């Protein structure tokens, strides 16, 4: 800081003492002036020794120059004519009592003002040469003080300047302003879309109707009822009448309905109904799905319904799958068969061809052809071999379908009259081996009468396209070459968006310490939040029995690897009691005595961002929470299909309660009685969020979705997924709001953190051991 300056009076001037000091103190503030190098005192002549002016308040008497000032003011006033003389406002005595810092800041400004006033009146103020010299020196001191204060003020004002630009005075004429940006707040309308997309058929989410009212025969309805399917759900009430035989001219159907709303049965029932009317087994229908797990799940739905239409003379429809879980040849033999047909002309042609192969068989390729031919079944004399389908309906993944079209003898789509694309947005966006182009080309082949629908006026291929997050992208839908399409939308609170099930409750958990995230998860799993939310689920959760069951047998960790991918995968219709059972409502158990283990969760599906993350988290959970270990299963795309199926089955039976999964199972998977979904890692998109959380709150049941949100993810989560906060934009439609919930609040106890670090170390060792083992 600097000494406070009091302007010198005549009286005071006599007290200013010149001092000979060091060079550093030549400057009034004990520093050399910037840019000047002060000379060594010894080099200077004594007369040129600078004077150190010491202003010491203690030495100075109070200034009372009011009289002099008054006379000066009067003179100024008399010169100015009409201006009144101002009263002197010297506050010296008051300032002396004020806080030093404040005084120090105010004083220079005030003194500068006074100086300026005096400079304006040189004839009055400048009494003699000494005065003049001292005054000039003071002025330079003022200037420097002023400058330093100015710099300080500048720094302090900088932040304010950022906020508000300084006002610059201009002429009265207004400055030219930039054109105001007009934001187009109008929402995307469907006006540019074709009428069928612009005006969908809207259905309320709570409508139900008996199947018999929708065109299903009473005998079939009865069978469905025994499978737990009493009334049709909303989407089924709208879709069934469009797909079941009708005298009206019918077209294709596009369905956008929330997860778990029953889209599968809306196409399964009319297809089975139609195909059961045809006598000969031929490939009549294709259902394309993005994953093997979904293929297996839809197969179960079909098999549960085939019996319902094998009444009143209808045939039992044969279902097959093609998804690449078995060796190709085996899959071929399950889908296709061979039949000997009497055809002497055909037999002659066959013999001529054999001769050609034998005589050409010189090159390596031709030898291979010959070998292949000899391996094939040989026709009986005067017979030829026909390749025939063993299934009426094929449920498949796109890649495997393309492979069969290319390589399987006799695999023709000539008689296909149903094409179902489930999870359509995924299948249309991702071009799996250009499956759609290849299939559409095959379906364009017309064989007279081959694609006629026995009991309706519709001819050709009937297409049904479904998703909970249906695309409205025409360029994608165009590839399907839809004919007279209708869009069915099961309404939510915000029509047109990706609606969540109405009975889903969503929660967000703030993760304050990301490095301890697994501990938050453990706390959540053991909290009261993970209790059953559906009364019937609570009834089924006979905790003790299930724990002992799982401990003895089906723990994921103890699951046998011997379960190979060649495990039989029924390709034709059969009385698979186990499959049928899975669709049956579980018989109610007595109310459980959950109090013994109150902290164990009911049923939870935890989503991670990758396969590896799922495997790691699953193991970590088991280490951190040994009581949970036997109840944890893992589902990743690197897990064998058969093992995944077993895990899903164990979960459905209540032997497993916690599934840790990658996004593989986020779409379509129908886990019976799943109550809670946890987004351990944030999903990559809103669509992914909708599918993940849609694994619960299905088929009119309640469910909860929990998302762990780290600080860095909060903005994205609340804006994009929850649709809350400034600038929120979300396509997700929901009934309520996402609630904030606290879990793992406060410090985690030191022992827990230590145990966690120990578990991580163990995990590292296991991973290293695994790598060593593989080497
Ligand atoms: N009419 C019905 N009565 C009773 N249960 C039904 C009925 N229709 C469907 N379900 C059951 O509802 C559940 C969800 O059905 P489904 O899997 O078809 O949903 P989804 O709409 O395809 O969901 P996602 O979009 O997630 O694939 C299934 O367990 C199914 O058995």
From TrEMBL:
Domain Helicase ATP-binding: 244-488
Presence of the UniProt keyword Nucleotide-binding in the record: yes
EC class: hydrolase
Positions of the UniProt region annotated as Disordered: 1-177, 535-599
Acidic residues composition bias: residue spans: 154-166, 562-581
Biased composition range(s): Low complexity: 550-561, 588-599
Stored CDD domains: DEADc_DDX51, SF2_C_DEAD
Domain Helicase C-terminal per the UniProt entry, residue ranges: 578-745
Comp. bias intervals (Basic and acidic residues): 65-83, 140-153
EC number of this enzyme: 3.6.4.13
Recorded catalytic activity of this chain's protein: ATP + H2O = ADP + phosphate + H(+)
Keyword annotations from UniProtKB, A to Z: ATP-binding, Helicase, Hydrolase, Nucleotide-binding, RNA-binding
Pfam families: DEAD, Helicase_C
Nucleotide-binding listed as a keyword: yes
PROSITE patterns xref list: DEAD_ATP_HELICASE, HELICASE_ATP_BIND_1, HELICASE_CTER
Domain of life according to the entry: Eukaryota
MF GO annotations: ATP binding; hydrolase activity; RNA binding; RNA helicase activity
Membrane-crossing segments per the record: none
Domains as described in the record: The Q motif is unique to and characteristic of the DEAD box family of RNA helicases and controls ATP binding and hydrolysis.
Family label: Belongs to the DEAD box helicase family.
Biological function: RNA helicase.
Protein name as it appears in the record: ATP-dependent RNA helicase
